[in-house]
Structure formats: C-alpha cells, structure tokens
Amino acid sequence: MNRAEVRLSKFLARILRHAPESAGLTLDREGWADLHGVVQAAQRAQLAQSAAEVGRVVEINDKQRFALSSDGLQIRAVQGHSTVDVNRSFEAVTPPELLWHGTTERNLPAILADGLKPGRRHHVHLSPDRATALKVGQRHGRPVLLEVAAGAMTAAALVFHRAENGVWLTRAVPPAFLRLA
C-alpha cells in the first residue's frame, strides 16, 4: 500500500471499528455501514474520491480488515470493534490446540496476572501462527509471544470464533491458559 492508501485504511479502521459518529455514520449490529456514506466521509477528510478507491483498500489490505457486502452497497470492519452499537454474531468454532498472541514486554506483568482481556474491543484477538502474532507484538515495542492453550480452553467450555480474515476471537483468556513462547 502506498501512503495515501495506508492513511485511508487507518481512517476506515477508526470509523468502522471505533468512532462511526465522527464521520456521521451509523453502523448496524453486524457492523455494516452504507458505502456511499463512507465514501462521502473519506471525501470530506480528503482521503478518497470514489467507491473504487475505498474498494481498492478493502481488496489490498494485507490483514483483510474490511469487507464489502455481496451487493457492494455496504462496508464493514471484519473484527476489532469497540463501539457498543456493533455486536457481530460469529459462529462458535473449535480452534486448533494452540493459538498465539503477540504483545509487548510492558504488558506482560498484567497479562500474566489477569490473563488476556479485550480492553475496549469486544474480543481478544489471537493468531493462528507464531509469525503473525510476533508481527502484531512488534507494533508497539519489544515483542513478547504468548502461547494460548486454545484446546484446553475449549475443553473448559470457553468459546472461540474465527473472523473471515482468519483472526481467532474469544471473550478473554484466563492466565492458566497462557504460557510464554
């Protein structure tokens, strides 16, 4: 992605995950927004001029953070919402035995004491592989990789979901299911 596309992607993440009202948008319970309204917001922010530009960012986003509806009239963030208006319905899915979470050293004491919590988001995000989790952890400091005993969590009746982009979601990960990798 070039710089303009990165700026547009960050704008889309903000308005489709966290602050739709800042762009004059309303999201439905599944996170969908009217594409025309999103394009108008991007035009006002001088980040895009057309639905084609927004669609290109949806298409080329390396983490597949966004989706267009089958009719092309709506757009949403796939996961990562913090707004109370959105409550995506995901099917429960059996995860692999191990999943991974990347974080930074400064977060480690709290995580080891209290487990992984979603913070402002609706779910804890977990990666299917070590490399992806490590990349996530590197975004904000010295990375730390945590192994999540997802199979044991499932056996303990904790529920997992998998977003369309492959990110694994759960409400929380108690410390007993975490191990430094």
From TrEMBL:
Molecular function via GO: NAD+ poly-ADP-ribosyltransferase activity; tRNA 2'-phosphotransferase activity
Keyword 4Fe-4S: no
First-level EC class: transferase
EC number(s) recorded for this UniProt protein: 2.7.1.-
Source species, domain of life: Bacteria
Annotated family: Belongs to the KptA/TPT1 family.
Protein name per its UniProtKB record: Probable RNA 2'-phosphotransferase
Organism from which the protein derives: uncultured Sphingomonas sp
Gene name, Swiss-Prot/TrEMBL: kptA
